[in-house]
Amino acid sequence: MKIRDNLDALIEKHPEIYEAYSRFGKAVHEQGGPLDERTRWLIKVATSAALGYPKAQLTHMTKALEAGCTPEELEHTILLVAPTAGFPRMMEAMERLREHLRSPEEIRP
Amino acid sequence: MKIRDNLDALIEKHPEIYEAYSRFGKAVHEQGGPLDERTRWLIKVATSAALGYPKAQLTHMTKALEAGCTPEELEHTILLVAPTAGFPRMMEAMERLREHLRSPEEIRP
Amino acid sequence: MKIRDNLDALIEKHPEIYEAYSRFGKAVHEQGGPLDERTRWLIKVATSAALGYPKAQLTHMTKALEAGCTPEELEHTILLVAPTAGFPRMMEAMERLREHLRSPEEIRP
Amino acid sequence: MKIRDNLDALIEKHPEIYEAYSRFGKAVHEQGGPLDERTRWLIKVATSAALGYPKAQLTHMTKALEAGCTPEELEHTILLVAPTAGFPRMMEAMERLREHLRSPEEIRP
Amino acid sequence: MKIRDNLDALIEKHPEIYEAYSRFGKAVHEQGGPLDERTRWLIKVATSAALGYPKAQLTHMTKALEAGCTPEELEHTILLVAPTAGFPRMMEAMERLREHLRSPEEIRP
Amino acid sequence: MKIRDNLDALIEKHPEIYEAYSRFGKAVHEQGGPLDERTRWLIKVATSAALGYPKAQLTHMTKALEAGCTPEELEHTILLVAPTAGFPRMMEAMERLREHLRSPEEIRP
Hints:
The structure is a homohexamer.
Chain A lengths: L1 H12 L1 H17 L5 H15 L2 H13 L4 H10 L1 H4 L1 H16 L1 H4 L2
Helix pairs in contact in A: 1-2, 3-4, 3-5, 4-7, 5-7
């Protein structure tokens, strides 16, 4: 799988960089404030959807589902991005959600 | 206040456009899925923060606070944007949060 | 066809959201001012080209051609984006125009 | 005036770069296709509005008005950007139009 | 090859536009200041990586390698983009570097 | 000074997040590859210039000058961004360079 390949290559070649990045992400996630796990991942889905990053969105959707978010909550999250980010960016994100729900084991990073 | 001025001018000159936009925003917000009011506004704060829209972020933060979100939850939301959007974009959004909390009545749109 | 699939899924699942969005787009298009139909679509082609949204650009190009714009006018529109948006963004949009003109019935959304 | 200052400094220090850039802009503008002068500038207004470049938008609006476009046409152009680029980006551009029309001689680059 | 196809089509149809663009790029490159050839191309790799332009990045990487930059220098350049542009944008650029190094003759524009 | 204020507030309130971010930046900078200190900072200037982050660009320019880069090298770096990112983005970055060189002690973060 492509996301893993690229990440694995980074981890193999630059373990200290990936480690430092992971710690930064973790610090923000766990020590940045009081939001619960589900809300955290929905916010990250909104972020990657708004910015148009397909692979980050896949990772964030997977994590959100693992944290107990429902497909309907993911869909609501993506729809909420539309007025601010514009319709096309939302539609691209929505397509990725639909593909992910159709074949999670194939696409799951 | 600048945000209101610009919005008022639009509403006055193009009421049907603003009306249609509001309905779209409302449809997405209320009929887009099951997320509660607080989470909806946090997601919108994340969106405007990630995209770097100062005035939209002010509106979203005001609405989030009115919906019962705490300043700490807004801060957590903005911090969560950093790994995906990059540090400078998060810092710009954080500065707007801090200024908003310092003088809500002045800046509040 | 992918654009239609994604749009159809939205329309089926969230008819009221798509309806509200369509009204907003229509209000802006028809009541936003005096520009004629052809100019409106060229402006939308410029917008989706400048922002790098492939599917929106396909829709806008199709509508522009239906409104009577020539391929040369679409090309001119896209070229005009280059100095402001940078060369790569223009070239991506130009490639989509070329592919669209080669096989309109296949790609046409 | 700031736009001129910055441009003058570039022209003074790197005349050959500005000259080359101007030729590129001119080639795109005049030899890129059949669009008339007014439409060309509206397309450039749409581009700088969609991308959020305040100074480029000022230049493009000034040129559009000089080419005979009306304020209503500029307004329509900017409104048409909204569904694709999102509401906040359009509103920022609309505010710049309004300020420009209020005090053209002050802001005019 | 796609990059060449698209570029060739532009050159064939609008030689004067491509010529003007090339001169602009050359003026910036050769007369813009004292940086040596290798550094110039690394800066262009950073630019296309930060902005997420796959084809421009391929061109810039090819030129950087031709100018004597090592794969390790390209990798360092792309990694340096991460804190400012965010992790996903860097990872996309890194994947393009890896693919380019694996099969340069296939992908090389 | 605004940059410091905002950064100081983050450091005071979330020392562990800033610490983790700094380590990530340092890992990328020092362990990401063989580029020398001067080239690293020029690449970061190109990145913040291309993405339009004023405060990050100030930090990167300050560090680049401290590392021994000349104003002419910074200017060349920013000019090189223009063909890929578009003229307006480069001009905004150039204005920040000029202001920084005029009054380094005032603006220096």
